[in-house]
Amino acid sequence: MQTATPPLRLPKVEAAADSRPALNPPPDDKPLSAYFPPYSEGDERLDRYTSIPYVFVHAVGIIGAGFAIAYGQVTWVDIVLCVAFYYLRMFGITAGYHRYFSHRAYKTGRAFQFILAFLGTTALQKGVLWWAAHHRQHHKYSDQERDIHSPVQRSFHWAHQGWFLCGRFDKTDYERIQDFARFPELRWLNKSFRAPAIGAVVLMFLVGWLIRGDVMGGLRAGLWGGFFSTVLLWHGTFTINSLAHVWGSRRYQTTDDSRNNLFLALITMGEGWHNNHHHYQSTANQGFFWWEVDFSYYILKMLSWFGVVWDLRTPPRHILENRPATP
Ligand SMILES: [Zn+2]
Ligand SMILES: [Zn+2]
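Above: inputs. Below: predicted complex with zinc ion.
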């Protein structure tokens, strides 16, 4: 005999001493499970298939980098590989996973669409359809009770990485990403997301071996371009779910607690203009003014000159002037 499952409800954060704006109340009384992905009724303990590789990459990256620094074994090649591979993959996340697959902020052909998805996949942030579907859910209920990773509703740690590492939200909500789930190559990549990341580390090893001409050169490139760069990339990206909802300024009175933050924009190639983005989600640029640095958009703009991407959406005048649209 089946027993009835009680409705899932996340513990609410006390509305304690806090100057943040009041959030919209939930529009109805349905249980949270009605709004979360359909497979999300598991518990919130760490998922071993996500958390063990996550801890392993942290351990190798941080301990290896620590030893290399302590023994004076860091060269400019190591640093260049680390920074280059960080920003290359960050572009895959911001321009690909986020602006294209989650928000359809511009158009491109099927081949470059796959390249974007592949590049984002090498960042080891799970599959492209998984990522984009969860991000759409975040925007729909941002900082409200049904937001999966809100630092306002839950803890900072939960918003930063807890939700990513637990088993409850590990499945892809295909319903929410039907527009891209119709491509078989994306469904394949979504399921096989670990292979490109492992391939990227092997490629780093080979690049280092070629540059320095020995195995040690390969290992050092794998450490800095692969492991350490991936640790930075995880936390760089995750700051947008955690810090960008608590630290920075607010141009727009959105119903969430999103912020604009120059530092976060620099480490995430423009994603730090998160209050802009929550107010008007569908633009290819998230920095709305020339002083709001947005390297993802600059690269997309350059790619548009060569016809690789097109129809880049930008904010209308009333959004830039922060006033209602005139009828
Ligand atoms: Zn978004
Ligand atoms: Zn957000």
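Residues 1-26 have pLDDT under 50 and may be disordered.
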